[in-house]
Design brief:
Amidase signature (AS) enzymes; 10% strand; FAAH hydrolase; hydrolase activity; hydrolase; alpha/beta; 279 residues
């Protein structure tokens, strides 16, 4: 959801300026139902007090005629070949339903990536400062490393990072004046293998972590809403998803596009170990 759309009251303020909560569901329809219940102002959560009324307008429209889908192809293609192939086919599916694809440019993405890291880690360090001081040896190595890195940032770094946030939001305002949404792959690669040693000691691969967040950072950083929909599988059977992002408060268009993306996925595989909790 848009930053502030759904109340975060009761959740830990680990990184309060980048946290936007939303439902994780097995279908877009379920996500729409949960969203329609949760999306409203909460007196205990000041960030979302002034917001337009949440709607599901045109969600069930028979096609996508009139919608303009923005794609920065250079950014879009920075992913593994299997992911790219599936996501390109999904975009063509949306075009076949009447939407038009408009090429856009997402400027200063590297600057936004660095600023995003500075904001998140600085706020995490602030929230976890008492634990860092009192329970350092109880933390796992990855948490220690992240908080140690965060301790090197200065107030000036944090201020500059938030100035970059303002710039990035302004760029998005201009882009969303010409398109209804921005499309990207959700994650540039499929899930990595879990080794036996990972179950004993944990795993820390910062280069993979940073890469896996490539397409998510813009939404986190600027507070725009996003929807991730599974669209298929790799040859190894691992899921691949497409991400749709829209302007602030326009979750309805995400759900409308998401319903059509579900039609593109020809099957939904169940895990080898599966429990039907509703049976």
């Amino acid at each position: 959801g848009t930053f502030g759309r759904i109340s975060c009251h009761g959740s830990l303020p680990l990184s309060y300026s980048t946290v936007s909560v939303g439902p994780i569901c097995t279908s877009v329809a379920d996500a729409a139902i949960v969203y329609s219940i949760l999306a409203e102002p909460d007196l205990l959560y000041p960030y979302g007090l002034k917001q337009p009324k949440a709607t599901l307008s045109d969600m069930c429209a028979p096609d996508l005629k009139g919608l303009k889908l923005g794609v920065d192809w250079t950014f879009f293609k920075a992913c593994d070949a299997e992911v790219l192939s599936a996501c390109e086919k999904a975009v063509k599916h949306l075009q076949s339903l009447g939407a038009s694809v408009v090429e856009v440019s997402l400027p200063e993405m590297e600057e936004a990536r660095v600023a995003h890291v500075i904001c998140i880690l600085s706020e995490m360090r602030d929230f976890l400062q008492p634990d860092f001081n009192k329970h350092f040896h109880e933390m796992n190595l990855e948490t220690r490393a992240s908080l140690a890195l965060a301790s090197q940032f200065t107030a000036l770094d944090y201020i500059k990072a938030n100035r970059q946030r303002t710039r990035s939001m302004r760029f998005l305002q201009e882009i969303f004046s010409t398109v209804n949404c921005i499309l990207t792959p959700a994650v540039p690669c499929t899930a990595p293998r879990i080794y036996e040693s990972d179950l004993l000691t944990g795993s820390s691969d910062m280069s993979f972590t940073v890469r896996s967040m490539r397409f998510m950072q813009l939404g986190n950083f600027t507070g725009i809403p996003g929807l991730v929909v599974p669209i298929g599988y790799s040859t190894a059977g691992l899921p691949i998803s497409l991400q749709v992002m829209a302007k602030w408060w326009d979750e309805a268009v995400l759900l409308r596009i998401g319903l059509k993306l579900e039609q593109f996925r020809d099957q939904t595989k169940k895990p080898s170990i599966y429990y039907d909790i509703l049976a």
